[in-house]
Write a structure and sequence with these properties.
This protein is mainly alpha-helical. The chain has three domains: about 70 residues, 434 Repressor (Amino-terminal Domain); about 100 residues, Arc Repressor Mutant, subunit A (Orthogonal Bundle), CATH 1.10.10; about 80 residues, no CATH class. Helix content is about 55%, strand content about 5%. The protein has eleven helices and two strands, in the order αααααααααββαα. Strands 1-2 form a two-stranded antiparallel sheet. Helix 1 crosses helix 5, helix 2 crosses helix 3 and helix 7 packs across helix 9. The chain starts with a helix and ends in a 35-residue tail after the last helix.
């Protein structure tokens, strides 16, 4: 009932944004205004009636459900304590990363050495942390925002930084699906900002591709590490050769 009530609240907001009053809804649906008010107050709609109201706004039912999904509380970051809890438990962190990558329950237990009971316990913890909603039959609904980020220099970022330094960068980057590009030059402030803007745009595109490819079967997807980095930097070997006053 809570979900239905929230859905009707979203419908009311949609009507308001389209500047449709209960009186206008009643007239277009050939109902009395009192009945329309009663219907919204009781939050009792048939699917057919719900669809009729949506059509008044030139919306499909799927559009209403999308608005409802967007209206739900979404988290953009975890607390320090929550991240520390994930880092302490390798299997919990594995399940957290897996669900963020939109793997389902069956995918996780088929792909990793984790039992069903261990996976369920991990999912229950993630539900408590409000990262997911754990639904019947172990279905998973993500609650994190599209712009979700780990805490800057927090436990998760530090954990992955160690993995990047010890594993990710130790590669020739010449195998299939591997590429490495390193550029070095002198740029002005405006050019640096332009590169940063392009990096942010590319990061958004990567996120969108990640979301879109969630529809593919797991065996058609790859664990991909993608790193973009930019900072003032000079080869260490050149520094002793700098003239004094040019630090």
């Amino acid at each position: 009932m809570a979900q239905i009530a929230a859905l009707i609240d979203v419908l009311k907001q949609a009507l308001k944004s389209h500047r449709l009053t209960y009186a206008e809804v009643a007239r277009k649906l050939d109902m009395s205004e009192a009945n329309v008010k009663r219907m919204f107050a009781s939050k009792r709609f048939t699917l057919e009636r719900l669809e009729e109201v949506c059509k008044l706004m030139r919306m499909e039912l799927s559009d209403l459900f999308q608005l409802y999904e967007e209206s739900r509380q979404r988290i953009t970051q975890l607390s320090l304590e929550q991240e520390e809890e994930l880092v302490r438990d390798t299997k919990l962190l594995l399940v957290a990363v897996s669900v963020r990558n939109r793997l389902g329950f069956d995918d996780i237990i088929a792909h990793y050495q984790i039992t069903k009971s261990e996976c369920i316990r991990a999912l229950a913890k993630l539900d408590r942390l409000k990262i997911i909603d754990l639904l019947p039959d172990n279905r998973i609904k993500l609650r994190i925002d599209e712009g979700f980020r780990w805490l800057p220099n927090g436990p998760i970022e530090r954990f992955f930084e160690k993995q990047i330094q010890s594993q990710f960068l130790k590669s020739g980057f010449n195998a299939e699906l591997e590429r490495r590009l390193f550029l070095f030059g002198l740029l002005g402030d405006a050019s640096v900002q332009l590169v940063i803007d392009k990096m942010q745009a590319l990061a958004k595109e990567f996120t969108e591709l990640h979301r879109r490819d969630a529809r593919l079967p797991l065996d058609k997807r790859h664990n991909i590490g993608f790193m973009l980095a930019l900072r003032p930097w000079e080869l260490e070997v050149f520094r002793p050769l700098r003239r004094k006053g040019r630090e």
